[in-house]
Design a protein that fits this description.
Layout lengths: L4 E7 L4 E7 L5 E5 L5 H10 L3 E6 L5 H4 L2 H8 L2 E6 L3 H4 L2 H8 L11 E3 L4 E4 L2 E7 L8 E5 L4 E3 L4 E2 L2 E2 L9 H12 L7 E3 L6 E2 H7 L7
Parallel strand pairs: 3-4, 4-5, 5-6, 10-13
Antiparallel strand pairs: 1-2, 2-3, 7-8, 8-9, 9-10, 11-12, 13-14
């Protein structure tokens, strides 16, 4: 087993970080949040010779899940996550896409819903699942304890936090998710987020203005 590696393919007009997590030795991996631009995702996988085992979703917003059905059909793999609280969002992707003028996104439901305390894996890389509502009711994050790495979706960003003005958003709930689920993972944990550059939890604890007082 090799060290866990990650590649990012920005997708959709929202420049969402579609993330490929993979093992450089076995070339096995997963795609996290294929929000759209599926041909670009498939080309990236082909160029790197990667074999995708599953698609993982952090939450049901169109820019994170809108390409999941198309990618599933292309790869013949299961979609895992998010929490069932995001069922309404996943069933409204096409309506939301029309509102934003984004073409080609599809409604989707996963093959497996996730809940707090579940575990997911590919090869020998295991991730703990935490339910982190606030940005979206069914948002989950993925944490690899062995390599101190997390994918936080749209919960916590480098210098910011997820929006809570979208349907299902709740600012206080998001702060509680960060306080109770994200920060306890540890200051040395590096993370990828749904948009923009990643960071370390400790850096955000010290410097992120949205985390003061929580």
């Amino acid at each position: 087993m090799g060290m866990l590696q990650a590649g990012i393919i920005p997708v959709t007009p929202f420049q969402q970080n579609c993330t490929v997590l993979f093992d450089p030795e076995t070339k096995e991996g997963v795609v996290v949040d294929p929000g759209g631009d599926v041909p670009a995702i498939l080309q990236g996988l082909k160029d790197n010779g990667l074999v995708i085992k599953e698609i993982w979703l952090t939450h049901g917003h169109l820019d994170h899940a809108g390409g999941a059905k198309e990618l599933k059909e292309a790869l013949g793999v299961d979609i895992v996550g998010p929490h069932e609280g995001d069922r309404p969002l996943l069933q409204r992707i096409e309506t939301q896409a029309a509102t934003y003028g984004v073409q080609g996104l599809q409604n989707v439901l996963p093959d497996r819903w996730l809940k707090d305390g579940d575990k997911v894996s590919f090869g020998e890389h295991e991730f703990e699942v935490y339910h982190t509502p606030g940005h979206a009711p069914g948002h989950v994050i993925y944490f690899n304890r062995e390599q101190n790495f997390a994918h936080l979706g749209d919960v916590l960003f480098n210098g910011s936090i997820g929006r809570t003005d979208l349907p299902g958003g709740n600012h206080q709930q998001l702060l509680e998710s960060i306080r109770d689920k994200v920060l306890p993972l540890g200051d040395d944990v590096g993370f990828i987020c749904g948009h923009g550059p990643g960071s370390r939890i400790g850096d955000e604890r010290r410097n992120n203005p949205f985390l003061r007082g929580i």
